[in-house]
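seq:
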Amino acid sequence: MRPGRPLLAEVRPPRWRIVPDGPREAEGSPYPKASLLLRAGARAVDVGVAWGLWVLLGQAGNLAALLFILLADGMLEGQSVGKRIFGVKVMHLPTRSAARHRDSVIRNAPLGLVMLFGMLPSPIGGVAFGAGLLVIGGVEAWRAVRDPLGQRRGDHWAQTQVVDAKEVAGATVAERRQAAAAQQPQRMLFAARRRSGGLRRRQRCASR
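struct:
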């Protein structure tokens, strides 16, 4: 072994600790499970709106219906048209704020996939749509029924929960912006430390 070479056991530990970029994932939920009947009614209204877009807009109706299903839960502060009518709301659990369009797209991705199957050329599209609705829709519905919080697979991906709107009256997207703002000083401090560390390393390399 050459003199002056550090042993493997003497390798220094990392100097910087990475600061989380956002709120920590929530453990559990403070909200009770929403009525499945209200959720089913809200979904029926939303599907009806999507079907109307599909029929009325011709060739553009397919895309319009798909975008509506994906984005619906972020349109009215965590409520789609159906959810506003039936008094339920989608909440983003880590920030305790109303779901945004990003959350809506993630939680409705399984249903959007079923709609994509229906856009395939006939007759494959009809068969794929029926199979997707039976399998994916069935699994999502079963999870909503069995889960203690009523969360289906899409909700777990998006970290969301459908709740009674009266339970979260006043919760808006603004609360999430405040939570993100609270993290900004930590992110700026970490970035400054990282730049300072990089500068010191360059100085040491230049002095060798």
